[in-house]
Amino acid sequence: MQARIIMLVDLDYFYAQCEEKRNPSLQGKPVVVCVYSGRTEDSGAVSTANYIARRYGVKSGIPISLAKKKLKDIDSVFLPVDHEFYREVSEKVMEILRSHADEFEQVGIDEAYMDVTQGTRGSYEEAKELAARIKKDVWTQQKLTCSIGVGPNKLVAKIAADIQKPDGLTLIEAGEVGRFLSPLPVSRLVGVGRKTEKKMETLGIRTVGDLARFDVQRLVEVFGRKLGTYFHNASLGIDDEPVQERGEAESLSRISTLKENTRELAVILEEAEKLCDEVYARLLRRGLSFRSVSILVVATDLSVYSRSKTIENPTKELEVFKKTVRELFAKFLSESDVEARRVGVKVSNLAKEEEKQKQLTNFFG
DNA sequence: GTATGCTTTCGGC
DNA sequence: TTACGGCCGAAAGCATAC
């Protein structure tokens, strides 16, 4: 294959930046966007914080009460998430980005990969100009900053974008990949979270360079064939994944925090059925049927359990969904002594109505 | 033995 | 000292089919 030029555009501290865009008087202060669980006044977690808040140690995932403690006596702003607004902003930015790409792949609400090989005629010099142009367009049209990474593939582009944030632009040409990756901690690689990082550390692997020197066979033994070879290739900056449009979501889910911890079926089902109604509404709007139903329980100690069931034929019956959810919760509670803090429901194995028809047609062929 | 499907857990954002 | 959301997709691990 021809050498590619891939770009990853990442909107900076997205939810908090959207809030700054909506209300510029927030700029200059710590801004913390929160998911309030409703259990007590400040229970919940931080979704995103701007860079000023991050200087005080406030970051994604920490408890709101801890964030407030870190910002005690500081003039700061705590806001609840407003997904609808962020989605509108995101759609406008993605439209801008798409117009500059040969191939486009949105990842989540605030990130997109772009294959710009053709548009830049394979030149990093032109890629740099294009990236600057994109940053300017996103700023003038939407008043948002972003960080851009450019490299020979998605893996390198992603890591490059992470190197300088916010409002960064980092280019790594094919010949520089080895020097660029080697000194970085393995946690920079997609797929290496806290657990994998610990596991690698026990093997004496701390940097991407360490990983590159590590025996592939042993990596496969420890992590399995797929993940082991992925880690090996990743450490060498090898990645052939194409940039391509993503289709419909593969699953739809809702989770919420209970008023009080419980293992009473009736209490759990009352909440779960509300969640079913909400997931079902989204399902209908998209004209989808489902084949699999899952439940999720987050225990008092925050450990997570899930159970699921797949049915014979795709259906779009709300009652089938709820009945399956009731069965799964009843079975789960009878088989464990877990006390629930949060409960969730999910549908997956989704299919469009027309395709369901097609499946039946094929079946009776 | 390999492919495929289902369930559960992990981890990114 | 603790505190604690709500999504999503990927992959492992297992069972079954071919």
Structural descriptors:
365 residues, alpha+beta, MutS, DNA mismatch repair protein, domain I, DNA polymerase, domain 1, 13 strands, DNA-binding
Q: SSE order, as H and E?
A: EHEEHHEHEEHEHEHHHHHEHEEHEEH
Which structural class do you get from the secondary structure elements? alpha+beta
Structural domain tally: 4
Biggest sheet record: 5 strands, mixed
Q: What's the overall average pLDDT, rounded?
A: 89
Computed CA radius of gyration, to the nearest angstrom: 23 Å
Lateral strand order in the biggest sheet: 5-6-1-7-8
Portion in helices: 40-55%
Put simply, the count of helices is 14
CATH T-level fold name of the largest domain: Dna Ligase, domain 1
Which band does the percent of strand residues land in? Answer: 15-25%
CATH homolog superfamily of the largest domain: DNA polymerase, Y-family, little finger domain
State the end-to-end CA separation.
39 Å
CATH architecture of the largest domain: 2-Layer Sandwich
Low confidence ranges: 355-365
**How many strands appear in the DSSP assignment?**
13
Q: Under the CATH scheme, which class of the largest domain?
A: Alpha Beta
Shape: globular
